Structures are given as structure tokens and as C-alpha cells.
Amino acid sequence: MDLTSLSAADAAMRQRSADRENGGHRRAAVIDIGSNTIHLLVADCLPDGIRPVRDLRVRARLGIAVADRGALGAMRIRAVASVVHAFAVEARACRAREIMVLGTHAVRAAVDRDALAEAVETTTGLQVHVLSPEQEAALCLAGAALGPLPPPPFLCVDIGGGSCDVAAVDASGIRGVTSVAVGSGVLAARDLDGDPPSAAQANHTAARLERMFQAALPGHAEFAEAVATGGAARRLGRQFIDEPGTTARPASQLLDVVERLLRSPSTRWPHPVKAARAATARAGGMILREIVIRWRVPRWRVSPHGLREGALARRARGLSLDAAAAPHAGAPHRHGTEGSGGHRRA
User: pTM, whole model, 2 decimals?
Assistant: First the structure.
């Protein structure tokens, strides 16, 4: 047996030992470079789901930087690379066998995204998978599927910090994806300052959202329910104190709650939050409200799982991130205001 074979056999033996320590389950990590936050999730990947081991996040506000300047800039790129490095160290300390680094809207839209990918790879040795809107939608649906889902057809709505991806789901899977370049973080920072925002601000923002979604969402078949994912959606769902977050609720309840959150200071919410988080919850609520109105969806729910959980769930099933694309054959083309195409550093 040559040295290469010995090395491979030794590595396999060490990995079998690590698997025994983890109860025979594959442990993996995902680092999500999002528009609002950079997030680490380490989990054991089980046949029927995932078991979180470590969950950390750092607020980054990359979405507003890209929306204002079109680029992240050298200083912010160094800061992101430093956070990803620290998270990779933490993931390895948690004995993660695989670490995935994902970039969503803010990275995808930045003109200097290649510089960010290079900085992360130089610092950590890890490649950045810059997801297309279709890939984001597929991963969010895979995450939502870890919990209860309504029967198809339904909408899966991922409200990110810099964009909103709406996937139409039928019995065959994702039928089509619409991506709109408006997210809770950027909308909150630009249009909803104040706790609460003024009525004039709220009305102006609602009118702008209506125009954006009218342009981006053409007529489609009717859907009985919308399943919302993302941090802003989860913050919105926590304001319903009498029901679990995965319970389907009537659309009228969403409209009423969003109006109350827009009128009330966050200290008087059912679950009081800091003003900055309140702004993203209000923004996410307004985005979801507009989608429910535009698509005439009678019911909605918030999923506790999303993109990161979906990425780990797919890997647990042996599916690649690159395969997390796209509408099935015969699906309508994607509509939206954002360029398509995933990107990965080679």
C-alpha cells in the first residue's frame, strides 16, 4: 500500500471515529452571508431532519451598503472575511465535517463580489457559493419542509434583508420564482425610521411596495396559502402570542397585526423588541402583506426554518447546492427586477 492509500485510510478511520462521537450522524455547518446578518448554523444531519448544535450571528447590514453604493468596499470585505474566518474556526471546533459558505442578495448584487469571494477563500480556504434567486427559493422551501407545509399549490415567500423571493409550489415542486429587489433590512433603513414610523412614511412605503410588486408579479394561478421564511417573518410571527408560529392564520389577521405594529411603539408590542429589530419586523410585515393582497392568498403561516436549515437538509440527502435550482421543465420563466444566475468561485 502506498503513502497516498495509507493517508486516505487514516483519514477515513479518523472520520469514522468522529462519526461515532456524533452518534453516527454527519455534522455540517453553513455560514450565511446575508443582507442583514452573517449567520453560522452547525447541525447534525439526520435521516429525518437536522439537530442544531451551534447558532451564532453578527449584524452586518451589507444590504443597505450595496443598495446605497453598489459595492461592499474594501473595509467591509475585510470585516466580512474576518467574521467568516471566526465562524469557520467555531464550526471546526464543533467537529463539523463540511462547511458551506453561502452568499445571498447583497453579495450577488455587489459589483465587488469577486473580491469578497477571494478574501474569504484566502482567509479560510472556503469557497463562497453565491446563490441565484432560484437556488435561494429551493433552499428556503427545503428548510420550510422540515416543518408542516400546506398541500400544494402554495407560495413559499422568503423575506430577506435585501430581496424577496416568491416561489410558486405545486405538486411537482417549484413551478416558478419571482425575485423582487426589496428586503426587510433595506426597506427598514430607508423608509421606516421612527418607532413607530409616521403615518406618512408608512403610507408612502405601502404605495412604493404596491408599485414594485405590481410590476414584478404578473397574474398566476390562485394559491391557498403563503409560507413565509426569514428573520423578519419570524419576528413578525412572534407577535402572535396565542398560537404556535407554524399555525396557518387568515390573511385578515395579518393585515390587522401589521397595522397595529405600524401604529405602536415596539415597547408596547405583545413581545417587545429593540427599535432596530422592530423596523425590520414592520418592513417584513408590509412586504408579506403586499404579497398576500397581490396574490389574493387567504391564509399564511411563518416557518421556523429557512435557507440555512434547507442547505443542511439537502446536503444530508446527498443533494448538491448547485442542483438546488430551478423550476421544473415547462415552468414559466422567472420574473423580477434582479439579474439571475448563481456564481461560485472556482
Answer: 0.85
343, β-bridge pairs: 130
> Would you say 76 and 83 are in contact if contact means Cβ atoms under 8 Å apart?
no
Q: What are phi and psi of 168, to 5 degrees?
A: -90, 120
Taken in order 30, 33, 35, 36, the sign of the CA dihedral is: positive
Domain 148-302 in the same topology as domain 25-130: yes
User: Which DSSP helix (H) or strand (E) runs through 227?
Assistant: strand 225-229
Residues 123-141 have pLDDT tens digits of 999 999 999 999 999 999 9
Q: Which residues, in sequence order, are CB contacts of 103 under 8 Å at separation 6+? A: 33, 113, 116, 117, 128, 129, 130, 131
Q: What is the dihedral of CA 216, 220, 225, 229, to 10 degrees?
A: -30
Distance CA 15, CA 88 (A): 18
Question: Under a CB-based contact definition with an 8 Å cutoff, are residues 311 and 100 in contact?
Answer: yes
Question: Is 192:201 a contact under the CB 8 Å cutoff?
Answer: yes
Cell of 128: 463562497
Q: Which CATH fold topology does 148-302 show?
A: Nucleotidyltransferase; domain 5 (3.30.420)
- Per-domain residue ranges of the chain: 25-130, 148-302
Give per-residue burial for 240-270: e unless 16+ CB within 10 Å, then b: beeeebbebbebeebeebbeebbeeebeebe
Fold assignment, 25-130: Nucleotidyltransferase; domain 5 (3.30.420)
Q: First CA to last CA across the chain, in angstroms?
A: 33
**Which residues make beta-bridge pairs with 39?**
32, 57
- pLDDT, one tens digit per residue, over 157-207 is 999 999 999 999 999 999 899 999 999 999 999 999 899 999 999 999 999
